[in-house]
Amino acid sequence: MFIMLSNLLDERVYNGLRSLMVSQEYTRKKVARTKKAEDVSSIILSAFFWRQARDIVKICAPILKVLRLADREGVTMGLIYELTDRMIESISSIESIDSARLEEVKNLCVERWNMLHSPLHAAAFMLHPIWKSKSPQLDPEVHAGWIDLIERYTCGDIKKQGVLIDEMDMYKSMEGLFALPIAKDESRMHNDVKWWETFGASVPNLQKLALRVLSQGSCASPCERNWSTFSLIHTKRRNKLQPKNVEKLLYIHTNLRLVCKIKERGFQKMEVTLEMIEKEEDDRRLLALQEEHDGEIPSSSSYTSVESHALEDIVDQEDIAIDDGDDDGDDDDDDDDEDDDEDDEDH
User: What is the pLDDT of residue 17?
Assistant: First the structure.
């Protein structure tokens, strides 16, 4: 729906549709005087419809950006938490839409985030070097998620938890290799996994945990591929396999495909950065409507051009009636000709 509405709000489509509804060529056609055509025409010529369509696009644009991030493969876990906060802030800052409506949408987003949120998101937010300047440990929700994660990771081992907390303090204060000027280079911090591989040797236990957390995927595509492979293995004819055997066959099939891809393309790290997200062509095309003509119905000279077309092309009802009479007469003549032809064939 978002893509359809954003394409409708394109200036060429917008002006073209409105001009068509008042054009002489269209209004002379019989189909233009049907009930459905009149309903469509009233919608297209309604400023309220276009204003509502623009409001929907403006609200959905930040949500779409986060959904596309979460649904792509690669290292995205460290970006989800911050970009979700930005999404809610972006929705709250829209000025041209009723505050009650925005509050309702924001509450829906918060409820969905509370349902999907896990300690992994909070830990990844803390461990991503690009967010270090935001002091994420001061956020109670983030800190609670981090503590929950290390308890699960260490299986309740107090000694291991203490080691991780001490090493986290070294990371916060930028000691050891973290103190190097190149480690503080923001362009390198965007590649979180590579950054931890390069500069995390001073804190080996935290480095291992950070690499595992930040390398986690946040999309469901791998699961869907597994389900597709499962449907190939477990078929109607081959349905007596035990679950353990199916799992083994699925494991072998998936890893063979992975090995083949590595041999063909080589090993590629799928790191996702903020710059990559901002420079994506599809996002720029779909989200341009949110940034341009803020608070206005999308048009440059749309109303004036449509009004000029209307003044030029509006046809009087009498002329339409005359045209109808001519058309009916032509139809009658055609029917007479067809009857004469049938009589000739009978004779």
Answer: 87
